[in-house]
């Protein structure tokens, strides 16, 4: 892997951690709006961003979660699996809006992993947690779609990571 790719992914992971730490009060628990999740859309532009995104989730959960072990397993798995599924489903799709919509759906549906975590760790009702976490993902990633497309027009995400 190129040094450039590693550095860019380190920046993405750092950005994810900073945003999550600043908004930690609403980034964890049964009702969460983790704003940094809009960075998941970077993988739509280039799958090489998956490393930075998942790294950001791992570091954020390690340092800011009250359920560290659970969040390291379930939170990281949720992100990695959702990104890999989205990458597989969209590999032949070129329309960015469609890819982002599929990405949003993968994360929203995959929120069941987080609901399971909340059930195991805190005995919270599974379906309530699934609903609230899924709504948070849907809202954040839905709002993130036009934002990420706007930023891409200025910085060209794919060009940045490919050099």
Automatic annotation (TrEMBL):
Signal peptide bounds: none
UniProt entry keywords in alphabetical sequence: Membrane, Transmembrane, Transmembrane helix
InterPro entries, per database record: QueT
Keyword Secreted assigned: no
Database matches in Pfam families: QueT
Regions crossing the membrane: 6-28, 49-66, 102-122, 128-151
Keyword field contains Transmembrane helix: yes
Annotated protein name in UniProt: QueT transporter family protein
Source organism of this protein record: Carnobacterium inhibens
């Amino acid at each position: 892997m190129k040094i450039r790719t590693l550095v860019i992914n380190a920046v993405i992971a750092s950005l994810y951690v900073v945003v999550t730490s600043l908004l930690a009060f609403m980034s964890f628990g049964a009702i969460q709006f983790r704003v940094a999740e809009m960075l998941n859309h970077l993988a739509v532009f280039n799958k090489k961003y998956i490393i930075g995104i998942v790294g950001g989730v791992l570091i954020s959960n390690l340092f800011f979660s009250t359920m560290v072990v659970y969040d390291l397993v379930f939170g990281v798995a949720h992100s990695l699996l959702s990104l890999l599924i989205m990458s597989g489903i969209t590999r032949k799709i070129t329309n960015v809006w469609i890819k982002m919509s599929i990405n949003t759906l993968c994360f929203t549906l995959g929120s069941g992993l987080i609901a399971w975590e909340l059930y195991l760790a805190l005995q919270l009702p599974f379906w309530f947690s699934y609903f609230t976490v899924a709504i948070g993902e849907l809202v954040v990633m839905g709002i993130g779609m036009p934002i990420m497309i706007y930023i891409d027009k200025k910085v060209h995400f794919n060009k940045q990571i490919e050099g």
